Structure formats: structure tokens, C-alpha cells
Amino acid sequence: MAQKNKLINDPIHGYMSFEKWAVEFIDTPHFQRLRDIKQLGTTYYVFPSATHSRFEHSLGTAHLAYTLTKRLQEQQGIEKSDHDLECVTLAALCHDLGHGPYSHVFDRTVIPYLKPSSGWRHEKGSEMMVEHLFKELESCSIDLSTDDEKFIKALIRGDSKGNKRSPYLFDIVANERNSVDVDKFDYLARDCYHLGMKSIFDFSRLMQFSRVMDDQITYYHKECFNIYEMFHTRYSLHKKVYSHRVSGAIDYMIRDALVEANSYFKIADAIENAEEYIQLSDSILNRIEYSVCEELTKSREIVNRIRRRKLYKFVDECLVPKDKKDHIMKMINECEIVSHQNDSVPLHEGDVIVDWQTLNYAKRDENPVDAVRFYNDGDVSFPIYRSNVSYLFPIQYEEYIVRIFARNPDKVEAIQDAFRKLAKTSGLELSQGFLKSGSRKRRFPVEDP
Known about the structure:
- This protein has two domains: 6-243, Orthogonal Bundle (Hypothetical protein af1432), CATH 1.10.3210.10; 313-361 and 397-449, Alpha-Beta Plaits.
- Helix content is 43%, strand content 10%.
- It has 19 helices and eight strands.
- The protein has helices at residues 20-26, 29-32, 54-76, 84-94, 104-114, 122-136, 146-157, 182-195, 203-208, 224-242, 245-260, 262-265, 267-270, 274-277, 284-289, 297-307, 325-331, 334-339, 412-426, and strands spanning 6-10, 14-18, 210-213, 216-220, 313-320, 352-360, 374-375, 398-406.
- The strands form three sheets. A three-stranded mixed β-sheet has the order 3-4-7. Strands 5-8-6 form a three-stranded antiparallel β-sheet, sandwiched between helices.
- The chain is globular and about 75 Å long.
- InterPro entries: dGTPase-like, HD/PDEase_dom, HD_assoc_2, HD_domain.
- Keywords: Hydrolase.
- This is HD phosphohydrolase domain-containing protein.
- Residues 50-197 form the HD/PDEase domain.
């Protein structure tokens, strides 16, 4: 009797069907570990319903990758190599295996602090985990070759160079060409759902009106606005949710706790060893909190502060003009802020955290839609530029923000005063909406749940 597919009910996609070979990858410690890594990291501390994990996001991404690849192959009769469908699905399934504790907190703040010159990203961790998974998987219903493994890893990092498989397959999971991919389709819908937010971006319609032309995935010309809405939704979530001030403060608390615990847990070494890395998840905070090891005293104190909401405090922020970014980045740092302190409250570099934020439409300072190809009733694909869609779309696609935090809540005003003195000499325009030096009154309320 033929093996039935496994059905998993999902609030975003309904019943998702996975074939036996996919389930064999799902039922491994490597993949099951993702249950213990929250998709939105510390955002959960601000938005309590954001409890979803990398586990269900990876399942959803794999479901969409399988659905889209199979539809394109069958409807267009595309010639395919052996295991193209399986490899794309497995790449989507495994694309987040490299995430560490609290997702992007780990690869954007912890590892850069512990190994500043490593250039390590979670995609590299995913490749390491895939390689180890292939070695550890005792049996598999499909015979995947070494070339298939290399292909899967290339799909995860979105690198089609030197690969002989069909170029359009690299547009599905991690699209380096224009950033339109099923990873975003899933997490935008899933995050909005769990955050209780609405979005008019319709990924199912976009998938339905896609086709392969000129070796890449193209979209029906009437979907251009829908694609703009996708990138706008992504930017809005970054602006309102992913970069929330309170979760940003907790990000740095978790970073400090993990940095202090590095000598005990060997966190920095784990990124080079899959067997050790598989033990790292959000549960590391519990291990710190309930330990009695003297070596973890400082880390434990920070975790206890998080539990009691005695958090690092947001001090101030301002937008940095694009033409001044490089100059400002050289001038604004912890040392310079402290050097502008007054004598009322003594400040030290360890009291101040300078956080640089970059928000964009997923292609740095470029408009990603300019790299998308569209089709109509003909056989030729073409671009659609902003001026042909709407004059209300942005003309700048990246913004830079410098944000200041205080480790000690009692020093917020002193740090803000010092930062504003430095900012004034740097030519920055400061917001009037935040806490004024010498006063605890706010002109506008600042969200701080």
C-alpha cells in the first residue's frame, strides 16, 4: 500500500500536504529544534500573541515552495532535472535551520560582538546544519546525491553562480534577484496573523499569476501594485514591530547575557560545530536563569531583570540623512556620547548603547520592483518602473536611524543630554517627541508596555 502524505493543519495555508521524504527531514532533531526558536525573537515580550516559531514558518515556506514549483513545472511543461522539486522544497524546509537563540538577535548582535570579523550569518549556519543532517539521516525515501546537497545549500543562500540547474529555481526560496520569494510570502502573512495586524498583500494571487519566462519567474503586469504592497508591508512591519524600541532594549539585554555566558556555553565556538549548535535555542535563557553556577552570575542577573521588566531604557533616536550617514556613523559612538556628559551624573561607556538601524524595501537603497519582470499576453517579459504605476510610491528605498539605549534607567536623562549635545555638533535634526533633558514629561506618549 502506497505511503500517504502527511497533512498538517495550518492557520495560514490550511491543510498542508508533505510527502514521505519531506517528513523524514521534518522528523529530525535538526528541524524539531526550530520549535524552540520564536520567529520574532524578543518581539514576543512586546506583542504577547507573537508566539509562533521558526518551525511552523519553515513548514509554511516549504509548502509554498512545493506548490509553486510543481505548478510552474506542470502548467508550463518545463523540462526539469531529477529531484528539482524535492531540492527546492527541502531548501525551503531547511532555510532557517541556522537561526540561533531568539532568531536575529543571535546573528545580528551576539555573534558580531563575540566574533566581529567572522561575517557569520544564519544562512551559513543553515548550510552547516544541512550538511550535518545529510550525514546523520539514517534513511531517506529519495536518493539525494552530493550535487543535490550542494544545490540545496546554494538555494538557501540564493547563489546561482556556477550551478547548472534551471536559473528560475533560485527565485523561489531566497531570491537575490528581486527579493520576491516564498519565504516572504509566508512570514509576512504569518507575522501579521499572530500580531493581529492586517495586510492587503495577496501572495496566493501573486503565485497564481506567475510564470517562467527568460529563465526567471515573472508576474502578470496587473500584479505590480500587489508586489509594491508586499514590500510596503515588509517595511511597515520593520518600522512598527521588528524594530520596536522595547524589544530592541531586550535584544541588547539578551546579547549581554549571552556574551557573559559565552565562556561557559562556548556559544561562539558552536557556530562551527553542528552537534553543539543543535543544543542552542531560546531555552538557553532558562538554563541561565535556573543555574547555580557562579560563572553565570552576571548573565543570571540580566535574565532576572528581563523577568521583572527592569529593562534597559530607550533614550533617543533620530533619522540620519543619506548624504551624512558615513560622517555621522564615525562621530556617534559610546565614547563620544560620554565625552559630552555634564558633571551632575557620571557616565561611563558601559552605560550607553548605540544602535544603528537600517530599514529598506529588501534591496538596500534600490527599488526591488525595478528588478522584477512582468508579462502580458505576449511572449516577452518586461520591467515596469515606478513612474508607470504611481507617483505616490517612495523615491528613496532605504533609511538610517541611530538609536540610543541606557543600561541603567537612572541615567536616561544624562545620556540623552550628552547625546543631544553630540548630535547638535554633528548636524543631526532631533525629534521633539521624546523625553527632554532635565524633565520626565513627554510631549507625546511613547509606547513602553
